[in-house]
TrEMBL record:
Family matches, as PROSITE patterns: 2FE2S_FER_2
Protein name according to UniProt: 2Fe-2S iron-sulfur cluster-binding protein
GO MF annotations in UniProt: iron-sulfur cluster binding
InterPro entries on file: 2Fe-2S_ferredoxin-like_sf, 2Fe-2S_ferredoxin-type, Beta-grasp_dom_sf
Coiled-coil regions listed: none
Organism ancestry: Bacteria, Bacillati, Cyanobacteriota, Cyanophyceae, Pseudanabaenales
Gene3D superfamilies per UniProt: 3.10.20.30
Amino acid sequence: MPCIKLEPLGITINVSAKDKLWRSLKHAKVELAATCQGQGICGTCALRVFDGASSLSPMENLEQATLKNVRRDIALYRLTCQTSVLEDGVVFYLDNKADKKLAQIFERLKNRLAPRDIHHPITSELLVQEGNLITQEILERLLSDF
């Protein structure tokens, strides 16, 4: 399962190579707008690719046209609803409000003591016991698939 890095959060999450990136991000609780519901025509799910563009699925004509229509540089952006991650090493930059809120939550929690036991919301695995330090690794595990 490939991993991607999301900046400015500084987190790494696992994504499915079988699914489009938008679906994997949604599963990891990273909500991106997609006005067209993943049909590739609105451009609202576009993310800037900082590194590793060669590890993404090839860009199809629809994606190219949509990025041009919304005035995005097709060399720098990809539509998450049309793109799959094939290998590790891709770094994306998140710049929407939901991700800024997630970044604020991470900063408030990181390197603090857990006020109670924290379990993974899907697997119920204990990630950190009450009174122990909440690390970057623990926060990343909250977003990653197992």
